[in-house]
Write a structure and sequence with these properties.
Length: 132
């Protein structure tokens, strides 16, 4: 997807300000994914929860014939600013392993809690696969 980046703006780190999707295509909208494993357990570490959530996102995109390069928007809900800021290296590694060098527009929100009190992160995704 072409990235929207005004020449006189500093390039953001880890996301883009916007992308364009031209023409007809298949839109994919995923519910927020949390970091719970197959047994409905949650690791204590926020970076581990992010990794699981991103792996779940990649799995769902694959079900639709899409990949991380088709993501046009991420919305992150986080329950702790300090835990998120302290987990930068682990989150960066999880990103690299799942999303690679794709940096779609992202919004991060700090909230007081999620439906499952064990969850520290929830990530929503919108993706678009252009018609060939």
């Amino acid at each position: 997807m072409p990235v929207l980046q005004p020449a006189d703006w500093p390039r953001p780190r880890g996301f883009s300000h916007g992308v364009t999707a031209d023409g007809p295509g298949q839109w994919i909208v995923l519910a927020g994914q949390t970091g719970h494993d197959e047994k409905d357990g949650y690791p204590d570490d926020v970076a581990a929860q992010v990794r699981i959530a991103l792996e779940r996102i990649i799995r769902l995109l694959k079900e639709a014939g899409a990949g991380p390069e088709h993501i046009v928007r991420l919305v992150w809900y986080l329950t702790s600013r300090s835990e998120y800021e302290g987990a930068g290296a682990g989150i960066g590694a999880a990103w690299k392993d799942t999303l690679g060098r794709n940096f779609p527009p992202s919004t991060l929100l700090y909230i007081s809690g999620l439906v499952d009190a064990r969850a520290k992160v929830e990530i929503e995704v919108t993706a678009c696969v252009p018609k060939k």
